[in-house]
Amino acid sequence: MIFHWNHLNWNFPNSSMKQQFEASQYWKRAMPAGIKVDQQGNYYVSVPRWAHGIPATMNRIVMKNGKPLLEAFPSWD
């Protein structure tokens, strides 16, 4: 096992976005659909927007404080 989540969480670009995601419990509707690894060892996870509140469809896994988080790829824009 490389990564383990109790629920998917993102490395949000600002605290208000994170607060809304957590308060609305959008993480309950986030389901990974595909995982890819590139030649540099970066992991990418697709999370379809089947439900309201999913912040990004294509994501790269980043480590923050020892925890794997999803970050919008290629950017939040």
Short description:
With 77 residues, the protein is α+β, with helices and mostly antiparallel strands. Helix content is 12%, strand content 27%.
Task: Give an overview of the whole structure.
The protein is of the alpha+beta class and 77 residues long. It has one domain (15-72). The chain contains 1 helix and 4 strands, in the order αββββ. A 4-stranded antiparallel beta sheet has the order 1-2-3-4, with no helix packed on it. Strand 3 (58-64) and strand 4 form a beta hairpin. The termini are far apart. The mean pLDDT is 92.
Estimate the global geometry from the Cα principal axes. Answer: globular
Main pleated-sheet profile: 4 strands, antiparallel
Radius of gyration: 12 Å
Helix content: 10-25%
SS class? alpha+beta
> How large is the count of helical segments?
1
SSE run: HEEEE
Count of distinct structural domains: 1
The protein's oligomeric status is single chain
What is the strand tally?
4
Note the gap between the termini.
31 Å
Mean pLDDT: 92
- Strands ordered across the widest β-sheet: 1-2-3-4
Beta strand %? 25-35%
Uncertain regions spanning at least 5 consecutive residues: none
Name a few traits of the molecule.
77 residues; alpha+beta; 4-stranded antiparallel sheet; 1 helix
List the SSEs and their pairings.
Elements: H1 15-23, E1 34-37, E2 43-46, E3 58-64, E4 67-72
Antiparallel strand pairs: 1-2, 2-3, 3-4
